[in-house]
Design brief:
alpha/beta; TIM Barrel; two-stranded antiparallel ribbon; 9 helices
């Protein structure tokens, strides 16, 4: 844990807040009980690392729905999350949020509606909106206007409460997609795929919310994050 502690101390010097992405092979809805309990363990390990470095949220992928009907996969995911809640109760990690991320592939569990429903299991869970994932899942039709983005915040506020929408943890990038959804992260110079970042900045300003946005552009995360910031600053 020494490296996590050192990273956290360095971040504090520059007033940088940290988040932690849990392993991608976590499966909340795995059909095998043992697989799901391993996922509980991976989440606890991620919480331990986050605690050491002072991160306030971990981000979790729900995993594949596989060949199960989505309602059955949701039932398994709820059961896994209830085990997570029980496991966390015996740790000092209760103040670290567990973020459930919206997903970009058709066979994955994690539409916005599914994520908000799973977050109702316990207040420790929070939605993590990946706008690129949602757009790829919907084959490029999710986000074109400011109102398209506003609907995401409204949906979360209606389902979970305004405080969840006001301090949303987000991921953003343009993403290439196929008929099955997400294929590859791109950077802002791509002109074929979306979503556009400008209407998101306008929605944030119009709503007066204060989200954290992690830029996940391929190869140019820092450059594209600065583009978003400059665009937002110009709106203000």
């Amino acid at each position: 844990m020494e490296s996590f502690i050192a990273l956290g101390n360095e971040a504090k010097k520059y007033n940088i807040s940290l988040s932690f992405h849990a392993p991608y092979f976590i499966s909340l809805s795995g059909m095998e009980y043992e697989t799901r309990m391993k996922s509980v363990g991976y989440i606890l390990q991620s919480l331990a690392a986050s605690y050491a470095m002072g991160a306030n949220i971990i981000v979790v992928h729900s995993g594949s729905a596989g060949k199960l009907p989505r309602e059955n996969a949701m039932a398994l995911a709820r059961d896994t999350l209830e085990h997570v809640v029980a496991a966390v109760s015996d740790t000092p990690y209760g103040n670290i949020s567990i973020g459930l991320e919206t997903m970009g592939k058709k066979n994955q569990l994690g539409t916005l509606e599914e994520v908000t429903e799973l977050c109702k299991v316990n207040k420790i869970f929070r939605p993590v909106v990946d706008f690129g994932h949602i757009n790829a899942f919907n084959l490029g039709e999710a986000f074109k206007t400011t109102d398209d983005y506003i609907r995401v915040f409204d949906t979360i506020g209606s389902a979970l409460g305004d405080e969840y929408a006001d301090s949303l943890h987000c991921h953003f990038s343009k993403i290439m997609y196929t008929a099955g959804g997400e294929k590859k992260h791109l950077d802002f110079d791509d002109s074929e795929y979306g979503p556009p970042y400008e209407p998101l900045m306008e929605a944030i300003h119009k709503l007066g919310v204060s989200p954290t946005i992690i830029c996940e552009s391929c190869d140019y995360m820092d450059r594209d994050a600065l583009r978003m910031k400059k665009y937002y600053d110009n709106i203000k």
